[in-house]
Amino acid sequence: MLQYYEPEKDYGTPPSLSTETVTLNIDGVDIDVPEGTSVMRAAAEAGIKVPKLCATDSLEVFGSCRMCMVEIEGRKGYPASCTTPAENGMVVNTQTDKVAKLRRNVMELYISDHPLDCLTCPTNGNCELQDTAGEVGLRDVRYGYAGNNHLDAEKDESNPYFTFDPSKCIVCSRCVRACEETQGTFALTIDGRGFESKVSPGQNEDFMDSECVSCGACVAACPTATLTENTIIKLGQPEHSVITTCAYCGVGCAFKAEMRGNTVVNMTPWKDGKANEGHACVKGRFAFGYATHQDRITSPMVRDNIEDEWREVSWDEAFAFAAKRLRGIQEKYGNNSIGAISSSRCTNEEVWLVQKLVRAGFGNNNIDTCARVCHSPTGYGLKTTLGESAGTQSFASVAQTDVVMVMGSNPTDAHPVFASRLKRRLREGAKLIVVDPRKIELVAAPHVKADHHLQVRPGTNVAFINAMAHVIIDEGLEAKDFIAERCETPAFEQWRAFISDAKHSPEATESITGIAAADIRSAARLFATGGNAAIYYGLGVTEHSQGSTTVMGVANLAMLTGNIGREGVGVNPMRGQNNVQGSCDMGSFPHELPGYRHISDASTRALFENDWNVSLDPEPGLRIPNMFDAAIDGEFKGLYCHGEDIAQSDPNTHHVEAALSSLECLVVQDLFLNETAKFAHVFLPGSSFLEKDGTFTNAERRISPVRQAMPPKAGLADWEATMGLAKALGVDMHYDHPSEIMDEIARLTPTFTNVSFDKLDAAGSIQWPCNEETPDGTPTMHINEFVRGKGFFAVTEYVPTDERANRKFPLLLTTGRILSQYNVGAQTRRTENNQWHSEDILELHPHDAEERGIKDGDWAGIKSRVGDTVLRAKVSENIQPGVVYTTFHFPESGANVITTDNSDWATNCPEYKVTAVEISKVTAPSAWQERQQAFNEQQQGLLKKARKHETTSPAG
Amino acid sequence: MITIYVPRDTTACALGADAVADAISAQAAQRDISLQIIRTGSRGLFWLETLVEVATDQGRRAFGPVEASDVGALFDAGFYEGKGDKLALGLSEEIPYLKNQQRLNFARAGIVDPLSIDDYKSQGGYAGLSRALAMQPQAIVDEVKESGLRGRGGAAFPAGIKWQTVLDTPAAQKYIVCNADEGDSGTFADRLLMEADPYQLIEGMTIAGLGTGATQGYIYLRSEYPKAFSVLKTALANAYAAGYLGSNVAGSGKHFDLEVRLGAGAYICGEETSLLDSLEGKRGMVRAKPPLPAIVGLFGQPTVINNVLTLATISSIFEKGAAHYKSLGVGRSIGTLPMQLAGNIKRGGIVELAFGSTLRSLLEDFGAGTASGKPIKAVQVGGPLGAYLPASALDISLDYESFAAASAMLGHGGVVVFDDSVDMLEQARFAMEFCVVESCGKCTPCRVGSTRGVEVLDKIRAGEQRDDNLILLEELCETMEYGSLCAMGGLTPFPVRSAIKHFPEEFGG
User: Fold this and answer.
1) Of A102, A148, A193, which has the smallest distance from its Cβ to B440's Cβ?
2) Among B268, B438, B452, whose Cβ lies nearest the Cβ of A112?
3) Which CATH code for domain B424-507?
4) By residue range, what is the domain housing residue A407?
5) How many other CB atoms are there within 10 angstroms of residue A552's CB atom?
6) pTM of the predicted model as reported, rounded to 2 decimal places
7) What distance in Å separates residue A378's CA from the closest CA in chain B?
């Protein structure tokens, strides 16, 4: 879908959702539009462009610029077509002598206070003011240019990604409105009155000091050069664009990669993208410079052992080197001694190939994915209760929700574009229940306030969710008809008997969860009786020893209240990475073939065996933690690690490092020499999302196209590299294009039967299941019946975690995300996003800080049962006493040195969210940090020697 | 017991009423005379402030203008028994300036203790509410329509039609909003009404709530009126205490809550949609219409937004009946309009007249000409956006239609008088400059146009390409009139054009 660059059509005002039609006549043409459509939009739909500046179809009408005046028969004056609704029988003239003169005279006023530097202006060629001045035929500014003006207004260049040049501002308020309506941050306002009116971040602050979250909505909305991307200022306007999908979080925003040649000039959120509808966040919108960062490794490299220098080699040499070692290991240690980890950041097609390589090439099922450490409990829990391992709704569904429960998820930081939708609905009056140990932004944001903030003690989610259900049963608020009709009765009766026990009452669990019984009762009543209720949850639910149990508890709660199977309700796992859903769908679990079908099922296996012309091992393979254990035990010796930095992201770093050190062949495929690659013997340079074709599947099961915007920096895209490795291993799998891989996926996966690249090109994106029954995909699941038939109420007994606070480790550490950084930070740390967050910080409550003599900015030593590290401290009341919090975006932080081997009983998802620790004031880094630094320096040195012949490319 | 009345409104206080009251107390104590002082609102005869009244068997006798230093002599003359010639004005009701008015809105002003509900009721107060409580909402709205009452904020839109729209728009919550952001130069009728007779407004708003189904009202008061704020706050508390507000209005089981909110000093917040934004806690910025506030108003809900005088008039319409109200006035300008005489005028104050008198009568019979004694050159009626009328046009009838025919407007009834020393080009420039400062900044004709207007007028004064600039100024006026989002930019050309039209020689024409 390569396009010549052309700004997307702007209808001026948002579409009307009315089903009534009105007919009006504009410039002699009869036009049918839904009632409530503006005259401007009606004209635009008929191809008649009325001049406009303040109107844009992503924002509510405003009516300030007065360029869109028209004449309407029988009406006085010259109504603005943007604010005038179309009516039956209306006769509109968009061009008369009178309106032409008025428009020209208004434009004359604009230009009397605007610099005349069009030829050197960054938006030359893409400026609505310039275009409109042309449209209205302005030829002279009779006021001259010596009058009062804003031409000397100073630029604000504080934001690394865009420049605010108020001398070019026409005070149309599109930026202010975008910040309010689109983003919901309310960082911008118009300061002053009359001629002194000006756009102001905060209270006359600069952008960086204001509440601005750098989402870019204002920049996208600006019709002039007042707010312009720095890349545009530096590189000029794009000449073509490619529609693709963001490679950051699980929202899966659609973007237009706007290009000059092979250079990305701009990433513009795509208005027709269903997940984001034209909105973006600081990561997807601006933090793409990592793709051309000088740290990118663009040549395959090998070495015999990890103390050796890297040797740059050809792709074929690297494949041969890896294949020889892997096969050698299998010969020596057995068939099961090697495996692979697929990446939730790679495309569906690439993940498919990696699991296929393992199953068909390695001849075992030692394939796991990084979803193991984030959302594996979602897969298990939702499959058990509802029958499908996926969220039930579209993001757009939240617009129909009356009560939102956000549990263990911090959308404004981790899923900002969805958070904007959510905040919009909350501003419209939906109620909000936040379940989180921390005071996340949603608890109290501009024009958003949680009705309940239930500060659950880490590790007690099951006790909480049971108490919610108990109240609903206790007070008779359950959806009796829904349960009777849609759910398994014996299971429900059994569950009902279980949950009715007084030990689940909020009064009984108060001392466990730390939440007052009255608060739970009130929240439960709201959830059960407040209209459409929807649950959005994140890793604060899954990353626990009882993660799967909580997921089932969440599903129980939705079924109990009848909140499933229609718009506005549902169970919505917020996926962390771009393709968590997809990597799970693609069968990269050791026990499941694609489509969540167990490997032990002979008929499913036969399907694949026939298609792939191999025989498959019916025994499940090793999960990631099993791989580490087996490596330490000397049974697992070779690993193909595809786009995941397990050394940084997996818990108990000491253990992971020990495992990696004992491998005889570690093949890492990545963009950068990440922490894991420092233990590797073969490095296969990866390709960024801009360098390949494929698809990602987001948290709403939406399969979206990823399209190549530039050639792979290392010559091969990731799917080609995997194919090359397979070939060297003697495995026959060849494709000319990822679309052929998708054809194979569709052939072998019942929920993907009707998916193809052609269909994706036509539809833009598709939500699975997409097959004969649902040829256009499935926005809302479980509408008439559950995928498993009847919904299953699972008994969810609360079992306290072993990881408990005691005298030695009196505090509970929990971990989370921050807006500007993403996951292990490999991408965002290589962008200007560091200006917002350049190190991981330990947050602790003033009481806990004071007890330990720790002040803001002090170094805090954090010691758990398995390790210790040092972080800078921040004293904050966002966290409750007894709980401390940090992020893990920087490898040197060693956040996972502290986290333990504890994991979810069902899926081994690590218990990242609960680690008992003690904090003390220290003055030096931990021993691990010193070792890590030395190791890093050694490995960077070994890399540098290999790359000495390369010229470094400038950072993008 | 001797009863002395001393006003407590802003104007009287500015002219020393508090000192006068203190002096009367002190003198009485010194002379061992037992008397009580009742602080009323003002009668609105500001040229006589401080106007002190004494209750006598014949009625109240007036003395004024009194200064604190006069009080000793007044006591010496026995003023407290109605005696003495010093500053004596005779019976208050017989003062021609007052006697010749047709007071409805200001019938109680200066007579009652503004905070006393008993006083209010003794003068016909809450009789209208009693009637309205027995009526269905539609009957209430019909009565307003029947009365012919038009909005007193300036636009003169029929109040009943606005109310009907609110009544007909279904919503869980509706609002009554009183526009008490009286910002026009030379106007003070709203302030005086709130300070002198606040229950009249409270009663009118309550009836509006009953008529439209609104259960919550807000008075949006400009912050420059601290005394009105304090009177309203106390009056509201008293009305709640007496059961006239709240969940059981006058024992009827009907619900109406009322609060007063302060503005923050922006003229534009007197424009109804800006006012609603401001009331919602936002920056006061004009909203595009449609949708009308009657359909999508405060917090997006159907809202009656009326001026103080409009809502206050409701109580007398319901007390005396629509027919009585309709009997006053001329043509479609029905009822009375309290004119406010200000600027260069000898006798400033409130003059409430039925529509149909003349501007000349107002200025001469009531105002007695200019304060400077020089001839009247121009009169601006209707606030800073009103047209200037020349001395030759003073016979114009005081009604909406006559003013519209003269490309002028009656507006809120403010009258500012200028003598022959006024510079009309400077006045035209002032109109533009006022807009520069007070525009909300939303629409371009108003925000940028007013600045250019000032500059073009400066060029005209300097004689730079005068003819071209006069043409440009006219085109600018046209752009502002037809292109502006609200009346602020749309009406700014009126004073400018009227100055050019009536005084062309001052623009070099």
Assistant:
1) A193
2) B452
3) 1.20.1440.230
4) 376-573
5) 28
6) 0.93
7) 40
